[in-house]
Amino acid sequence: MAGPTCGRMLADMGADVIKVEPVTEGDATRGFRPPDLDGESAAFMMLNRNKRGVALDLKSEGGLEVARRLIVRADVLIENHRPGTMERLGLGYDLLSETNPGLIYCEISGFGRTGPMAHLGGFDLISQGYSGIMSVTGEGEGRPPVKCAPPLTDITAGILAAMGILAAYIERLDTGKGQRVDTSLFEAGVIQSFWQAAVTLATGVSPGPLGSAHPLTAPYQAFETSDGWITVGGSNQETWHRLIEIVELPDLAEDPRFRENADRMQHVDELASMLGERFKIRSTAEWLALLEEGGGPAG
Fold first, then answer.
1. Is 154 assigned a catalytic role?
2. What is this structure's pTM?
3. Does some domain include residue 196?
4. Which residues of the chain have pLDDT under 50?
């Protein structure tokens, strides 16, 4: 869905996007149902809103000819196949740029156009594993690996591709020349690992899964209340001091275990236990009202 996500973002901003589907069964997301609306997949409609569409058999000369006629007038082409597929169809960048030198040709694949894994196909689940995302989600030792519920690498790859296309378009306004834009699901996963990568590169040790907690600051996690759960962020000194006043634990401000963020991170389990017991004495609604009134980030 990375390619369709990219196209949808451009369509939402006003671009005239034409989606090309195979003539047999159409786009795979047409089969992602239930749920559906009047027989049409809700997933398909979410990914392809604001687009026009055409069905082509790109394995036939007639279908290829129609595709070439569309491409020669296009500003942008977005493709989401394994590397080499478009070249085998006669629709590679080198060939198409001869007839349309202003073409911005965007390629989104599982693992990029180069490197030892370039030939492999990719899905979001696979990319979340390879990129390390699944090594830092979930609840830790003894628990099964957990992926991020939304298709993180698909969506992020689509966003990265749209950014690359817009940058290439700005360049084309000056030069009149198109260019090749390339990203992958694997890159999209790696780019999401800012904090975890910082910890690992600085210490040589991955922070691993932390549930809802943060690898660099505390308190910043979900806590159980008397009737549910609440998320709380006390990730800097100002919000930390607000939080302990709201939960009526002001003495923690001078406790050497919790005075600064570095202290809190060294004693994060003790801090989580103390706050956890405190949050259980009231309902979620009560805590949210108190935190909102006191300016404590929560949800």
1. yes
2. 0.91
3. no
4. none
